[in-house]
Design goal:
- Keywords: Acyltransferase, Amino-acid biosynthesis, Cytoplasm, Methionine biosynthesis, Transferase.
- The protein is of the alpha/beta class and 378 residues long.
- The protein has two domains: 255 residues, 3-Layer(aba) Sandwich (Rossmann fold); 102 residues, Rna Polymerase Sigma Factor, Chain: A (Orthogonal Bundle).
- It contains ten helices and twelve strands.
- Helix 9 links the parallel strand 11 and strand 12.
- The longest helix is centred in the last third of the chain and has 18 residues.
- The chain is globular and about 60 Å long.
Length: 378
């Protein structure tokens, strides 16, 4: 365990014993949210940071579990002396509703049937997540987040927070995100969902009742997703056309990149214990995200009531959520004379760059969060 880590952590569970009326029209009668906290809440509760996770993320943002050497997914950026400095901030990471790491989701028991929700779990949107996360804010006694922070799908949640709860966050940090998915991105998600639903072990989403999981479909979905998270340059430098052995002229795995992708898919399907129905839900939440749709498809109108200051960050090699998509967010904020800072970070790591060490990214992030800390007296 590294010295600049938050150390050993344990998740907590918040139970909401009241119905959530979802955007899709369905009702979840009650639900649990699993979350972790790091650092100390100050006397006036002004130093709290909410971190929203991406598609395959969860509440375990930083630190370690007892007996597990793998740290939280944003260990590089959350901890003592890091951009989100737990010596100054009280940090909250939450597993989204519909997730598969303890929060109520498709693998949870449906109280009406006594069986796993499975495919009957309601479609969840980013707006629904904000509603449920706001319940957690109330539970923690926090009047206003010093900042809500997230990358990718997490960044979309930050945008929705700023629009739907403008007085509940002081700053919004949107990293490697977009105001809505492109048609190409929706297409990628549909291919991933089709891979899962076509698996013979999917059983119409009721695989848990059959004692199986759609491993092949999950692996294929992860292979496709992982491929889109990396840049062409990075894959070229990392693998090139390097062979594992010699050419055999058959359909076995021969190139190193093939071996790498199959390994990533197999690891996700077997070791991560990620629920297939949750994967379907999360990708649909991505597809449906379009806050401007409620404002005549005008993003500038959607941001009119925003009160938070913004930091928007993009990465040069991120072709899935390109810098041009972040610039759309910046322009819409500037149309409303909002306070926004923007950084386009040079990186060869594609969409995954927001998770990885990068000195310039770290510098920009740290400088902005230092400003947040000074404003709230942290």
């Amino acid at each position: 365990m590294k010295e600049n880590s938050v150390g050993l952590v344990k998740p907590k569970t918040f139970h909401v014993d009241e119905p959530l009326h979802t955007v899709s029209g369905s009702v979840i009668p009650a639900y649990d949210l699993v979350y972790e906290t790091y650092g100390q809440l100050n006397a006036d509760k002004s130093n709290a940071i909410l971190i929203c996770h991406a598609l395959s993320g969860n509440h375990h943002v930083a630190g370690y579990y007892d007996g597990d050497e793998k740290p939280g997914w944003w260990e590089h950026y959350v901890g003592p002396g890091k951009p989100i400095d737990t010596n100054r901030f009280f940090v909250v990471g939450v597993n989204n509703l519909g997730g598969c790491h303890g929060s109520t989701g498709p693998a949870s028991i449906n109280p009406e049937t006594g069986r796993p929700w499975g495919p009957d779990f309601p479609i969840i949107t980013v707006k629904d997540w904000v509603v449920s996360q706001d319940k957690l804010r109330e539970h923690l006694g926090i009047e206003q987040w010093a900042a809500v922070v997230g990358g990718s799908l997490g960044g979309m949640q930050v945008i929705q927070w700023a629009i739907d709860r403008p007085d509940r966050l002081r700053h919004a940090v949107v990293i490697a995100a977009a105001p809505r998915l492109s048609a190409q991105n929706i297409a990628f998600n549909e291919v991933a969902r089709t891979a899962i639903m076509s698996d013979p072990d999917f059983h119409g989403g009721r695989y848990l009742e059959h004692g199986v999981i759609p491993k092949r479909g999950l692996a294929l979905a992860r292979m496709l997703g992982h491929l889109t998270y990396l840049s062409d340059d990075l894959m070229g430098k990392k693998f090139g056309r390097e062979l594992r052995d010699r050419l055999k002229y058959n359909f076995d795995v021969e190139f190193q990149v093939e071996s790498y992708l199959r390994y990533q898919g197999e690891k996700f399907a077997t070791r991560s214990k990620f629920d297939a129905n949750t994967y379907l839900l999360m990708t649909k939440a991505l597809d449906y995200f379009d806050p401007a749709a409620e404002y005549d498809h005008d993003l500038s109108k959607a941001f009119a009531r925003v009160q938070a200051g913004f930091l928007v960050v993009s990465f040069t090699s991120d072709w899935r959520f390109s810098p041009e998509r972040s610039e759309e967010i910046v322009r819409a904020l500037l149309d409303n004379d909002k306070n926004v800072s923007y950084a386009e970070i040079e990186s060869q790591h594609g969409h995954d760059a927001f998770l990885l060490p990068n000195p310039f990214y770290e510098g920009v992030f740290s400088a902005y969060m230092d400003r947040v800390a000074r404003e709230v007296g942290a």
